[in-house]
Amino acid sequence: MTELIESIIKEPGFIWKFWTENKEAEEAGGVYMVETRESTEKYLDMHTKRLESFGYSGIRSRFFELNEKLSKMGKAPF
């Protein structure tokens, strides 16, 4: 996955990504912090196509806005 993260960190608007994994369920994912919804949508389209070309399916995503006040209280990495 080194090649994958090296690509992700070069994407416009990328700030950080937490990688998630459940080996028993054979599922993986992540939580991304990206500057704008537009850059996120462009990245998601490209990344979904890339994952599908690797043979992955059932790719899901959701968009959320940052609640900065509560995130800071929860010691989020800013």
Q: Could you please describe the fold and organization of this structure?
A:
- With 78 residues, the chain is an alpha+beta fold.
- It contains three helices and two strands.
- Strand 1 and strand 2 (27-34) form a beta hairpin.
- The longest helix has 17 residues, at 37-53.
Write a concise synopsis of the structure shown:
This protein has helices spanning 2-8, 37-53, 68-73; strands at 14-22, 27-34. By secondary structure, it is of the alpha+beta class.
Tell how many strands the DSSP assignment holds.
Answer: 2
Give the N-terminus to C-terminus distance in angstroms: 25 Å
Radius of gyration: 14 Å
Helix content: 25-40%
Layout of strands and helices, then pairs:
Elements: H1 2-8, E1 14-22, E2 27-34, H2 37-53, H3 68-73
Antiparallel strand pairs: 1-2
